[in-house]
Amino acid sequence: MKAVFWRWREFLIGWVFAAAGIILVFRGLGFVPTLGMILGVTGALLAYAGVQRARFRLGEGGPGVVHVNEGRIAYYGPFSGGAVSVDGLSKVELDPVPDPAPHWVLRGIESPPLFIPANAEGVDALFDVFSSIKNFPMEQMLRYLTQPPAHPVVIWQKEQRMLH
pLDDT tens, 91-118? Predict the structure, then answer.
């Protein structure tokens, strides 16, 4: 039960803020209803982001550790590891074959592919990285995580600029 609450923590916190805001709107006097509206909207947005983050989390206890710092994604695993620059990412893939969990495959322009288990410690940081990438299909990615395809899929690929 604790794991379920931990997975959905942002959603639950957002829901509490939204509920408190609604109560303030209907029960407050003076400027308090305005503060309640702000609190309610903020809580609703936090709850929405929490649902997305909860869908991204596939569990914990996987092999290795993910660390994102100063625009670099690093993975330290028991059998492999490496780093890739966020700006240098050229492709993000999801390999759904459980071994024991799906793997992210991050391909960089000047680095070898980085294989990261979707349940590695600190993998939540990838959600923030992915959401910062222009034109990254977040909803498609979340759909692939909840309904895994039978084979590896490309989630995002950097636009190739062609010289004429």
Answer: 999 998 867 789 999 999 888 999 999 9
10 Å Cβ neighbour count for 164? 2
Per-residue pLDDT of 54-74, as tens digits, reads 888 877 778 999 999 999 999
Cα 117 to Cα 80: distance, rounded to the nearest angstrom: 11
Q: Long-range CB contacts (< 8 A, 24+ apart) of 112-116?
A: 112/82, 114/73, 114/75, 114/82, 114/83, 114/84, 115/75, 115/77, 115/80, 116/64, 116/66, 116/73, 116/75, 116/77
CB contact at 8 A, 113 and 160: no
